[in-house]
Amino acid sequence: MPAGPVSRMIGHLASGEVAKSLKESSVLCLPMGSIEQHGPHLPLNTDCVIAEALTRRIVARWGDEHDLWQLPLVPVGLSREHAWAPGTVSLTVSGMTAYLRDLGSEIGRSLPARNLLIINGHGGNRGILEALMRELYGDFHLNTATIHLGAMMSPDTGADIPEIHAGKNESSVMLVLAPELVRRDALAALKAPPRGEALRTLVLDPAASFPWSSDDPRLSASGVMGDARGASAAHGEIIVARVVEGAGAIIQRLKDNAGRRTAEKKA
């Protein structure tokens, strides 16, 4: 990287530094979040905070090795499952599709990099991203992969109460990344969550999908899907380290895909 740029943030570059700093093989990292209820103890922008902060740590860890560059945060996603709660803001499916297609078109037009790593902080964005990644590649020639932070932070362990939303894992990560935003009194006052059978059948079953809502008492208590009462910064540090290190293999697979597609074009 030439002398001059302050960091690996795209927004910190001057216009004349773009062509000198980025190459076709550079990887653009796009954090995506949401504005939605996260129980009484976490802020509405929890997914934004986590996505942006973990993207920053991933870029710091892997940036020089893989030539990573951080794009500005996409702050609003698909959050209709939390629409019952004051403060939740959601795009429509058509609105988010148009936004991401426009963003992909502009990235392809304005930047030389052709690798895009989306760091998704909100589980509700997953379905549309899986569909749109094919369009981003086919229509705008962006070799794309998505890291789904929720799944990385809370892999399904078969526990009686799965961690899905504002539970122990997400709350612990917030105690590391933005402890000043965690309402500790409200965290301590949380009640026991419902058992996890409904979470597994209505939310996690890979064979069936339902339009569930986080105010369903079968799924959550106070909008929390999981058990946040055991949250701690120590647990959060373990999760953060696991996510940042695990991102390296995903970045490598993204670059391997780029190499395969280049070879196919030449064949």
Give structural notes.
By secondary structure, this protein is α/β, with parallel strands linked by helices. The chain has a single domain (10-266), classed as Rossmann fold (3-Layer(aba) Sandwich). The chain is 44% helix and 8% strand. The protein is built from 9 helices and 4 strands. It has helices spanning 18-21, 46-66, 93-110, 126-140, 149-153, 168-177, 184-188, 197-202, 233-266; strands spanning 27-32, 68-70, 115-120, 143-148. The chain has a 4-stranded parallel beta sheet, with helices on both faces. Strand 1, helix 2 and strand 2 form a beta-alpha-beta unit. The longest helix is centred in the last third of the chain and has 34 residues, at 233-266. Mean pLDDT is 95; it is low at 1-5.
Task: Provide a concise account of the structure shown.
The protein is an alpha/beta fold.
- Rg over CA atoms, rounded to whole Å, is 19 Å
What is the element string, with H for helices and E for strands? Answer: HEHEHEHEHHHHH
- End-to-end Cα distance, whole Å, is 32 Å
CATH class: Alpha Beta
CATH homology-level superfamily: Creatininase
Q: Strand order, biggest sheet? A: 2-1-3-4
Please indicate the percent range of residues in DSSP E strands (runs of 2 or more).
5-15%
CATH domain topology: Rossmann fold
By CATH, the architecture is named 3-Layer(aba) Sandwich
Largest sheet: 4 strands, parallel
Tally of separate helices: 9
The share of residues in helices is 40-55%
The stretches of 5 or more residues where confidence is low (pLDDT under 50) are 1-5
Structural class: alpha/beta
Q: What's the quaternary structure here?
A: single chain
| Overall number of structural domains | 1
Mean pLDDT: 95
- Based on Cα principal axes, name the global outline: globular
**Number of extended strands:** 4
